[in-house]
Write a structure and sequence with these properties.
Elements: E1 2-7, H1 18-33, E2 36-40, H2 43-49, E3 59-63, H3 66-78, E4 87-91, H4 102-113, E5 118-119, H5 122-135, H6 144-149, E6 155-160, H7 165-174, H8 176-179, E7 184-187, H9 189-201, E8 212-213, H10 221-230, E9 236-240, H11 250-262, E10 268-270, H12 273-291
Parallel strand pairs: 1-2, 1-4, 2-3, 4-5, 6-7, 6-9, 7-8, 9-10
Helix pairs in contact: 1-5, 3-4, 5-12, 7-9, 10-11
GO molecular function, one term: methylglyoxal synthase activity
InterPro entries: Methylgl_synth, MGS-like_dom_sf
Length: 292
């Protein structure tokens, strides 16, 4: 597995910075999974300078120039040659406007189009590592299994653009029992209505909503869920974005994504049906491991 790595300069200023703490926390797992890290910009120097990932052959300096690095990373993300990337870690602080640059937007968009992980929070990176650990037969009791155990106290947001609603319905149908373990589910309007219909067909009590319906995204639903995230009342957001269709409420979507980024330690964000299904399958495996 080869991942591109991009981060804000604010995450590199000391040994206690977000990126270095993250790598220190999961270094052993990265080595065990043999994850290649292709680092853009000053982050490589910070990693090496602080002795993190010391002598790790999978650590690569992608490019010193951020612009050229992001362009190359996007090209490698969609490529089929041996040097192609399998996903991206893109950690930025909420006040970093670089994510609005065309090359950064294109990187995220191509991640969605090609169904590759786009890990934009610390919680998402740890969750992904746990997922891959379970897929490779090496469960991490410290990261993934507590996530499953804590579902009964967590809130899950399920959102889908019009062109992705069928994919969301399929995902929930396939993993209904797992998703029902969350203490609460929230959705934007039309997605929520269809999910509640599905739940009733699965035997969910007719007088209890399976998911709480907020307003539609363009009418403020994304803002309502962003507020939940910022108040630490939503721990996982599964948002099936349609990357091939322009959205008039892009500002609302960006606000939600920024809220998730601001809560980087606590909120997992998944934007692709393929990545969401891989997590759900791993969560089932985690349930089995925790019961052994």
């Amino acid at each position: 597995m080869e991942l591109g790595l991009v981060t804000s300069s604010t995450y590199l200023r000391s040994e206690e910075s977000t990126l270095l703490r993250l790598l220190g926390r999961c270094e052993a797992d990265i080595r065990r999974l043999k994850v290649g890290l292709h680092v853009v910009g000053k982050a490589y120097g910070a990693i090496v300078g602080h002795g993190v990932m010391s002598n790790y052959e999978g650590l690569h300096h992608y490019s010193t120039d951020r612009y050229r690095g992001l362009v190359r990373m996007t090209a490698d993300l969609v490529g089929r040659d041996p040097g192609s990337l399998d996903g991206v870690i893109y950690l930025t602080s909420p006040d970093d406007t670089s994510t609005l640059l065309p090359e950064a937007v294109a990187l995220k968009r191509q991640s969605l189009i090609h169904a590759k992980p786009y890990l934009s929070t610390v919680a998402s990176v740890l969750d992904w590592i746990g997922t891959e650990s379970l897929w490779t037969g090496h469960p991490r009791r410290s990261e993934v299994i507590p996530t499953v155990d804590l579902m009964s106290s967590q809130t899950l947001a399920l959102i889908a653009h019009d062109g992705m609603k069928k994919a969301m319905l399929t995902f929930v149908e396939d993993y209904f029992d797992l998703l029902s373990r969350f203490a609460r589910r929230v959705s934007t309007a039309s997605t929520g209505l269809r999910l509640n219909e599905l739940a009733r067909g699965r035997g969910w009590p007719i007088d209890i909503a399976w998911t709480s319906c907020y307003r539609s995204g363009p009418l403020g639903g994304d803002a309502e869920i962003a507020d939940l995230v910022l108040r630490h009342q939503c721990q996982r957001v599964i948002f099936f974005c349609d990357p091939l269709v322009p959205h008039p409420h892009d500002a609302d979507i960006s606000m939600l994504e920024r809220a998730i980024t601001a809560n980087t330690e606590d909120t997992v964000y998944i934007g692709s049906p393929v990545v969401a299904s891989r997590w759900a399958e791993a969560a089932y495996r985690a349930s089995y491991v925790s019961q052994r």
